[in-house]
Design goal:
Belongs to the diacylglycerol/lipid kinase family. This protein is α+β, with helices and mostly antiparallel strands. It is about 30% helix and about 35% strand. Strands 5, 6, 7, 8, 9, 10, 11, 12, 13, 14 and 15 form an eleven-stranded antiparallel sheet that branches. Strands 2-1-3-4 form a four-stranded parallel sheet, sandwiched between helices.
């Protein structure tokens, strides 16, 4: 029998996981995997690190939103723990899970049980924190923690869109300098996104050609523009069209540096951040994750 450590955030997704706990544990047990549950709290993470380093567990499965998955991935990477990570989505957007081709809790269990893994890229900010899907700054990035929890429960990612629309009248541009490989760009912007994969901020297929194994980050810069032009950009995103717009700059880079003279709202995988100015390096294929067989075929 294999052993797994099941780390879960009890409050993610409207306290969903506690009600699904028996289903998750029994699903593993029926396939010969003894899953030890670990309830994430705000307490010290030393016990969790010790458990991950103990050699007892064959893999770790993490359930929660993007912030929870980020937390567990950082423990693995910062402590050089070589162990596959299973992603069981239970947050609002679940960007990283969807980038991996994982669309539901039940599907994620089946994917882990199939046992197929891949090595994926991660971003590394200021030599201190890894991110899995998105590092963002500027307008709208704080909607995830300013949106009413009941609204998120009832509407899912659409709650963020509603909150974002309500803030359009208050948006302000900011000065930004970005050096991305050989590119140097300076100007006034409304938003920047550093993305690993096709989905960010709950928007599916935001970058249809993005690849989380190629060693490159995708950079999206939204220039200062009128509310009408901004609405046009949002409409293209919501309609799942290609973000081809004169007010949007899209770059690929292995390394980039960002700075601004103005204070910015920042998020790392949907959680508040103060890592700015930011120096970002993409680490190619350093995190092992369970994925659907189709993803392996697509990458290959």
């Amino acid at each position: 029998m294999k052993n797994a450590l099941f780390v879960y955030n009890p409050v993610s997704g409207g306290h969903r996981i506690p009600s699904e706990l028996d289903f998750i544990l029994s699903s593993f047990q029926e396939k010969g995997i003894l899953a030890q549950p670990y309830r994430l709290t705000d307490a010290n993470s030393d016990y969790l690190i010790n458990a991950l380093q103990s050699g007892v567990y064959d893999f770790v499965a993490a359930s929660g939103g993007d912030g929870t998955i980020n937390f567990v991935a950082n423990l693995l990477l910062n402590n050089d723990i070589k162990m596959p990570l299973g992603v069981i989505p239970s947050g609002t957007c679940n960007d990283f899970a969807k980038c991996l081709g994982i669309n539901s809790l039940k599907e994620s269990i089946d994917i882990i049980l199939q046992g197929e893994t891949i090595m994926c890229d991660v971003g590394y900010i200021n030599n201190s924190q890894y991110f899995l899907s998105t590092f963002a700054g500027g307008n709208f990035v704080d909607v995830s923690f300013n949106t009413n929890s009941e609204l998120k429960k009832n509407f899912g990612p659409f709650a963020y869109y509603l909150k974002g629309i309500s803030e359009v009248a208050n948006i302000k541009s900011f000065d930004l300098k970005i050096t991305a490989d050989e590119h140097i760009i300076e100007g006034k912007f409304l938003l920047f996104l550093i993305v690993n994969g096709k989905q960010a901020a709950g928007f599916p297929n935001l970058l249809k050609q993005a690849d989380y194994t190629d060693g490159y980050m995708d950079i999206i810069l939204v220039k200062k523009c009128s509310n009408i032009n901004l609405a046009s950009i949002f409409f293209k995103v919501l309609s799942k069209e290609s973000v081809n717009d004169k007010n949007v700059i899209i770059l690929k880079a292995r390394k980039c540096e960002l700075s601004s003279k103005m204070p910015l709202a920042l998020t790392v995988d949907g959680e508040r951040s103060e890592l700015f100015p930011a120096s970002i390096e993409f680490k190619q294929r350093i995190l092992e994750v369970f994925v659907p067989i189709e993803e392996i075929n697509n990458i290959s």
